[in-house]
């Protein structure tokens, strides 16, 4: 028992004290390669890509930053508490995997925020994320669960009179620049996001390559289709900011599988097409017929591509065999050791359906709680604006935007130089 109390046994070996230097170096290498990149993706990518509406810049950046740091610690607390219940007499040792899973959990929260951003109070966002962090778990459920969770909350919190202030949610020239910078960060770090928990070596390399090919294919498809669906042949910035990333969302489940380069390109082609058409036709239909007010279009970037990712993973897993994977089959699918002969494709598909159902049911229940008039919800006139919760001086808004842009470009250059070393 004393050895357990001293954390003598951990994920790297039983005698940590004899190899402290090796463990520390391995931790630092894993941390900087994965966890640091995931944090940059969450902080810069998800935060700035949601700043397309110009009158809520402060609300978006501050709430997202606060949520990232708060719910990373909340996830770690929940996971440690769970281990304490299972092993009450053993000290729980946190590893880099815990930090990576915490970042995944924070990403799921940020995705759900995109459906109700600008129409909810800070307290409502806090309550919404509190329940979601308890439910969310696992890499495949990040986008599917988070997206449909946010859409269900948005449906319950529907505001019939919000159409009067809806033009405030439209983007302008400088807000699109900020959102596009966030898209570029997400584009750069999404291969790290999809490969963070893969086994180091062949599986990890395969996840990076599949994600990269999918992103490239999805970007080209989005640019072409965005011009085709416009009456005057122009490219829509909303499509470039979001649909270019839909392929990376969909390939996440099957990233470390034998999807092959041409398979990844096909996934990017299909998801780029579906996501672009979704922003053009499905998002207006959701608001008109189903009363789902999707502020940031998370249905076309996260929810639907996430569910498609489950289907792609099911098809790829069902086709897995020793002839394709060789000796790496059991490394890629460890469950085969415990349950030989099980239907991998069926279980993958079941996981996607469960994620969708949990997101819809959980979001509906939490939305009912948030609809209780005690959380300080904003009025329809103050939606999509910072003035309800911030002291805003309209004379200096453009100056503040320029300062933010200057600081962000400076940080971008510093990070680029660090990565080039």
Q: Please, how many helices?
A: 17
Considering the protein shown, what is the CATH homologous superfamily of the largest domain? Ammonium transporter AmtB like domains
Rounded radius of gyration (Å): 22 Å
Query: How many domain units?
Result: 2
What is the molecular shape?
A: globular
Task: Please bin the fraction of helical residues.
Answer: 55-70%
Q: What is the terminal separation in angstroms?
A: 45 Å
> What is the level 1 CATH name of the largest domain?
Mainly Alpha
> What is the β-strand count?
0
Q: Could you say what the CATH topology of the largest domain is called?
A: Ammonium transporter fold
User: What is the residue-averaged pLDDT?
Assistant: 75
In percent terms, what proportion of residues is strand? under 5%
Largest sheet: none
Topology:
Elements: H1 2-5, H2 20-49, H3 57-86, H4 96-116, H5 122-135, H6 141-156, H7 173-195, H8 202-229, H9 237-242, H10 246-250, H11 261-289, H12 298-318, H13 322-325, H14 329-332, H15 335-338, H16 344-370, H17 397-420
Helix pairs in contact: 2-3, 2-4, 2-7, 3-4, 3-5, 4-5, 4-6, 5-16, 6-12, 6-16, 7-8, 8-11, 11-12, 12-16
Subcellular location: Membrane
Domain Ammonium transporter AmtB-like: 92-389
GO molecular function, one term: ammonium channel activity
